[in-house]
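Entry 0007
Protein: DUF559 domain-containing protein
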Amino acid sequence: MTRLDDLLTFLAARGGIASFTVVVEQGFARRTVESGVAGGVITRPRRGWIASKDADRQLVAAARFGVVLTCRTQASRLGLWLHDHRGRPHFAVPPHSARKLPVDAKLHWGRPPLPRHPDALADPVENVLAHIAVCEPFEQALATWESALHSGLVTVESLRGLTWKPVARRILLRATPFADAGLETYVRERLRWLKLPIRVQIWIAGHRVDTLIGDRLILQIDGAHHTGSQRSEDIRHDAELMLMGYRVIRVSYPQVMFDWASVQDLIMRAVAQGHHLAR
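Output (structure tokens):
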């Protein structure tokens, strides 16, 4: 394996891109870089940076613009739940920066909870959550925070050790690691006013249920995958739950997202009739 091959392997482990300073610190000679550029396998997206031809395009853009991927953009890259994945990219820029970009983007200033290395192109999850907290509506931000907790990328204990802005502190006080998807966060928050025990993703009769309200009322949310054999299993499980004394309300993703008033009305009527109580 040549030194150029070694360099390409090193770049691949970093998303295909690195600062020239880091490359030199790793012992690669300038002539190795020049050889890669001449051969068309290495590019220079910006002064002081090199990238392989198949480098992560978003990281290359960050290096070219002199920004850091953060907030919704980096949350999506980390696989966190977002209310939707549309919209312009979100970048962090140095405090007091007056930088103008050649693309329409949401820019985030301010000091993050974790210090950024000068060569950083993407924020760690803690900084992502800090920006999400002030950028997104509370309910949507909470869902993304809980996605990070559920995935194990962070813990409540580790987050408590950091300094947060007031809105982020409020999210941290409400966040739990048990919600499997943002819709479960939405449901729990939207039903807080009932002042009933609300538990998400708990095991009953050998399967997880989305939300248990009180002692016996179960809300199940069907996604696009609830078809075929999955649908048949859901029907079987619903019957088993009812034989055990539970009441099941099953709704769809669009109902929760776009017709919450109707879903809430069903739950209110079930609670009014005492279906949430153990008999």
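Curator remark: The longest helix spans residues 228-243. The longest strand covers residues 198-204.
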